[in-house]
Amino acid sequence: MEFFLQQCVNALQWGSFYALIALGYTLVYGVLRLINFAHGDVFMVGAYLAFFVSTGLLAPEGLFGFSRELTLALTIPLTMILTSLVGVTLERIAYRPLMRKGAHRLYVVITALMCGLILENGNLALLGASRRTLPVLLDKNVYHIGGIAVTNLKLMVILAAVLVFLALHFIVTRTRMGMAMRAVSWDRFALPLMGIPLDRVVVFTFVLGSAVAGLGGMLFAMSYPVLEPYMGAMTGWKAFIAAVVGGIGEIRGAFVGGFLLAFVEVMVAAFLPSTFRDLFAFSVLLFILWQRPTGIFGKPLTAKI
Amino acid sequence: MLKRVHASVLICAAALFVSGGALAAETIKIGFPIPLTGEIPKVGESTKYAAEIFRDEINAQGGLAVGGKKYPLEFIFEDNESKPETAVNVTLKLIDRDNVLAIIGPQSSRQAVPAGAVANDNETPMISPWSTNPETTKDRPWVFRAAFLDPFQAPVAANFATKQFSAKKTAVLFEISNDYSKGLADNFKEAWEKLQGKDSVVAFESHGPKDQDFSAQLTKIIAAKPDFIFLPENYSFVALIVPQARDLGYKGPFMGSDSWGSAELMKLCGDACKGQFFSTHYVAAGAQGATKEFIDKYNKKYGYVPDDLAALTWDAVGLITDAIQKAGKLDDNVRKMRKTIRDNLAAIKEFKGITGNMRFDEQGDPIKCAVIVAIDQKGDFTFKESVCP
To answer: Which domain holds residue B263?
Structure first.
C-alpha cells in the first residue's frame, strides 16, 4: 500500500509537468486550431531563461547578489514574462504572416515544427552542448508521512499545476477575454465583424500558453537540474499526446490527460519490468483514443468544418 | 552557361582530387568520430583536447618521424552526436572521403559497437579509447581498444562493494538502449550472483535514453531494500538519479562505473554524489611520471584536470603513432598502409601508457589494471585502491 501511494506521489509530480506543457498546447489549439509544435522547445527555453535569470540575480556570482529566497521570488515572474515574449515573437514572425497570407493550416504546423528545431539548434550553437545546472534556490526538505517520502519542491510543483489549471479555467470560462478566446475558436472570420480585436486575442493566448510553459520549465529545472537543448523535445511530444488523449482544445482535457499519462507510465514501471514502460503506456493511450477518438473531454468537430 | 558551370565544377573537383591525393603522402591523417554534441558532449571535448595537445606537440617538432622523414599529423574531428547511426555515417565518411589511415573513437560503446563494424568491414584500423563492451572488438581483427573490458570491471566493482559496504543485496539501474550500460549491468549481475548467491540482486531496473524522471524505478528499488545501488550510467543520468533517490528517502551508498569519471559529474551532481565510489581507468590525484606530465600540460592549457578518457585518448594516439613509426616508411597506398598499421598494432608486446602498461590479447583487448575512485567531501576524485587482473 505504501508502495502504491508513493508511486501515486511520483505520478502526481511527473504528471504536473505534462499538465503544464499540455495546457499550453491546448490553449493555442483551442483558439487557433493550430498545433504549436514548438511548444516543447518554448518549455526548454523557459528552463534556460530560469537558469540565466537566477544565476544573474543570485549571490555571490550574480550581478545583484540577492538572497536565495528573493532570487526565487523574482525568477518565477521574470521567467514567465521572458518566456511569453519568446512565444509572442514566434507568433509574430512565424505564424501570423503565414496565417495572413491565408496559408493552409498544415503549413503553419510545419512552420511550428521548424521553429522548435531552430530553438533547439540555436541554443546548441549559442550555448554549446555542455549541460547546465540551475543553482539551488530552495533548501530541499524530505518529509516522511506514513512511509511516503515527499519533498517541499514536489508539493510546490503539484500545487503550481493545480493553481495554473484553475486560473486558466477561470480565465477561459469567466472573463471577457476568455469569452473572446472561445469566440475566436468558434468563428475566426465573423469575429472582427463583432468588433473583437482578433490579433490581441491571439497574442493574449500565446502569452498565457508560453508563460505557463516558462513556469513549467523553471520548476522542471529545479526538480531535474540537468539542462540540455533537447530536453523539451521528448517531454513536449509526450505532453502533446497527453493533450490529445484528454481532448485537445479543452483545458480540463489537458490537465487530466497529463496526469493520466504520468500515472500510466509510472504504474507500468512500478508493476511490470521497466523496460516495457513506454510500450505499455502508449498502448493504453492508443486504446483510449480508439474508444474515444476525440479524447476524454473532446467534442467532435465535424459539425463545424 | 550551364556547360560552363559544369566545366568549372569539374575543374574544381579535379583540382581538389589532385591536391587531396598529393597531400595524402605529406601528412598523416587520423579520424576522430567523437560525441561533440548530444548526450555526452564533455566526452567529445576531452577527446579533442587530449588529441590536440598530442598533435601540437608532435607538429611543433616538425611532425612524426617515420623512416627518417617527418610528417605532420592531421587530425579530423567529426561529430557523432552521441548517436549510433551518426557514428556509422561519420566513420564511413572519414574512411571513404577523408582517406584517414586510422580511426580513434568513438568513445561510448553505444557508438563504438556499430562504428567498429564499419571500420572492420572497410579494413581500417580503429582504436576506441574508452569503450568497455566486449562486442566492440569481438571477432573484429581491425578494431582495438585502450580500456579494460566490462567482464573485468564488473567483478572489480562487485568485490569492492562486498568489502567496502559489507553488502549482501544489491540493486541495479541501467539505460536499456545503451550497449555499455546494459552490458555492464548484465556482467555485474552475473558477478554479484556468483559472489552472493541466487536472488541477491533484489532489483534490476532500466530506463530509456531520454528519461528524466526515475522515481518509479527508484521507488521499486528502495522498496526491495538493497545494501547499495549499482549505477552503470552516463554522468548526466547519475546527476539526476542520485538526488532523486535521496528525495525518495534512500540513505545507502551508490557504486558507479568508469562512465562516472567525467570532469562534469560534480558540477551537475553537486553534494549528492560526494562520498560515493566508482571503478575507472586512471585517477589524476597522486599521479607520477608521464601521467603527471600529461595532467599538467592539459590543466595548464584548458584549466581543468583531464578525465579518464582524455588519458585513454592520449594512449590511443600513442599506440597508433607507434604502429605508424614501426612501419618504417609511409606508403602512398592508403589501403596498404592501413594493413601495415593493423599488423603492427596486433604485434605490440607491451605498451607503456599513461593509464598503465598494457598488452593486447588475440581479440585486440588490453590487459591492464583498474582503479577504484572515492569522491571526497570536496568533490575531488581520490585514489582508493588498484585492482589488477
So the answer is: 150-280
> Does residue B50 sit in the same domain as residue B20?
yes
Structural domains of chain B, count: 2
Kindly state whether residues B154 and B132 are assigned to the same domain. Answer: no
**Could you tell me if B130 and B187 lie in one domain?**
no
| Tens digits of residue pLDDT in A235-249 | 999 999 999 999 988
Q: Chain A partners of B223 at a C-beta cutoff of 8 Å?
A: 3, 6
Interface membership of B268 toward A (CB under 8 Å)? yes
Report pLDDT digits (tens) over B323-344.
999 998 888 899 999 999 999 9
From residue B222, give the alpha-carbon distance in Å to each of A154, A172, A297, B171.
18, 43, 37, 9
Q: Tell me the per-residue pLDDT of B268-281, one tens digit each, with 9 for 90 and over.
A: 998 899 999 999 98
Q: What was the ipTM of the complex prediction?
A: 0.89
Cβ contact (<8 Å) for A269 and B220? Answer: yes
B40 contacts B111 by C-beta, under 8 angstroms:
no
Inform me whether the pLDDT recorded for B16 exceeds 90: no
